[in-house]
# Entry
Amino acid sequence: MKRLSLAAHADLDVYYEAEMARYKTLGEHGQWMMHTVTRKRFIDFFGACPSIGFEYDGKPIGGMIFDGEEAHVAVLPEYHGRWALLWESALDWVFSLKQEIDVKVEAFNPTCIAFMERNGWPAIDRDGDFIVFRMTPRTRVRKGIARPL
# Structure
C-alpha cells in the first residue's frame, strides 16, 4: 500500500519542478516566471526558510515553505488530488510558526480561490494578478464545520 508522509524539510529541487510545471500552464506570465526564476535563484531565496516536505511512498512530491510572511505550497502535477491527507498536518506545522499567514493566489486560479473560501479564509487584498487571503487557525473550516483553536 502506498503511503503519504511528511518529511522534515521540502526537497527544493522537487518543489522547484512542481512550480515550473504550474508556470507552464499560465501562458505569458508563466513563461516570464520560468525564465526569471532559475533553480539557483529559487534555492538561494528559499533555502534558509522553514519547510516541510510531502512524500509518497518515500519519494518527495512537493511541500510547504514558509518565508516568514507567506506560506507557499507546491506538489508535482501527477500527485495533485492525492496529497490532501497531509493538509491538516501541514496547517498544524505552519500555524505553529505563525498564527496569521497571508497567501497570494493567482486571480485566475478558481480552484485555489474556491479552496480558500471553503476553508473560511477571507480575501483581504488584491496585489496585481493575485488575491491575498489571510489564513488563521480560528477561521479554518473543514467540511463546513469551523474548527476552534
